[in-house]
Specification:
The chain is of the alpha/beta class and 327 residues long. The chain contains 12 helices and 12 strands. Helix 1 packs across helix 2 and helix 8 runs parallel beside helix 9. The N and C termini lie far apart (72 Å).
Length: 327
């Protein structure tokens, strides 16, 4: 049977408060310290840090709300968060909402009831319900991937990413262009990324651009791309994410459309797989791992009552590869 802190205290002949003080790095006599260490080692006692945190006035636990786990961007961001939190003696709890907004709101309240010190929120959309939840729980919340004037936010420079991709596309001589985006409720990917692209296209002039909407799922991008290619013959398809671009490439290969000779393709994200496939995908690289580390650092500072800029914007990098032909 696992020993409790009461069992350890009884065997050591000391009060529970002495054991707690020892476990938290407090001062105890040398004789008492050696006795406690001997008993802990003998019974392989592991303190329940979660239970200890719930009893404490301030915990060392940070809640992280994510819309999905089967995403390169999310997994890399979580790795960065976890590494930075661990290096600062914090722990992470994850709530996956499977892109269900009500579950997202519920997770914010659930974390507050579990007395986490702060929450990192990876949301596709910020609604009045989100803002009310943040106001109700009265603990620090950091928004990652989106921005809102009422919340501390950490974002990638989506407008600049779209702009750089747009300029690159026209510099390569492409004028018959398809842009496959997502809904504008996702302000980062659906709005700002497309806005930057449109700005670059407008500076060029003489381009024939058609905009289509799909989802983040590769399976749906495949269906959308197939319908597009039956209707028109662009020289390039720009996917708003690498997953969308990969869906385009898959349907092109299935229809014996050569990339980039017959059709150029680009994406956004910089997923690892984009440099392993052939041809390698031209994309804009987002440093999700760094975003996670910065997010963890910022939420810790907020928990400690330190100042953090209202919005932090991370740079992006265009990666030209083999999937774009120069016309």
């Amino acid at each position: 049977m696992n020993k409790t802190i009461s069992d350890i205290a009884q065997m050591a002949g000391v009060a529970k408060s002495t054991i707690s003080r020892y476990l938290n790095g407090g001062s105890v006599s040398e004789d008492t310290r050696q006795k406690i260490e001997r008993i802990i080692k003998q019974y392989n006692y592991v303190p329940n840090t979660f239970a200890q945190s719930l009893k404490a006035k301030k915990t060392s636990i940070i809640g992280t709300v994510v819309p999905r786990l089967d995403s390169f961007a999310t997994s890399q961001t979580l790795i960065g968060i976890d590494e930075e939190l661990r290096s600062n003696q914090y722990q992470m709890l994850i709530a996956n909402t499977s892109q269900d907004m009500q579950r997202e709101i519920d997770a914010i309240y659930d974390f507050a009831r579990q007395k986490v010190s702060g929450i990192i929120l990876l949301a596709a959309e910020v609604t009045e319900a989100h803002l009310k939840a943040v106001e109700d729980i009265r603990i620090p919340v950091l928004l990652v991937g989106q921005q809102h004037e009422q919340l501390h936010s950490l974002v990638h420079n989506d407008d600049q990413a779209g702009y750089e991709m747009g300029r690159y596309v026209v510099e390569q001589g492409h004028r018959k262009i398809v842009y496959m985006g997502v809904g504008e409720k996702d302000r980062a990917v659906g709005f700002y990324r497309k806005q930057g692209f449109q700005r670059a296209i407008a500076e060029c002039g003489g381009c024939e651009v058609k905009y289509y909407e799909t989802s983040f799922k590769m399976s749906e991008a495949i269906v959308t791309a197939e319908a597009i290619l039956k209707e028109i013959t662009p020289t390039i398809i720009v996917g708003a994410t690498d997953n969308i671009a990969l869906g385009v490439m898959k349907i092109a290969f299935s229809n014996k459309i050569r990339i980039p000779q017959d059709l150029s393709v680009t994406g956004f994200g910089g997923y690892e797989i984009t440099e392993m496939i052939h041809p390698m995908l031209t994309t804009v690289k987002y440093d999700y791992l760094r975003a996670g580390k910065v997010a963890a650092n910022h939420i810790i500072r907020l928990v400690k009552g330190e100042s953090v800029e209202a919005r932090t914007t991370l740079d992006v990098e265009l990666i030209p590869r083999e999937s774009v032909d120069k016309l």
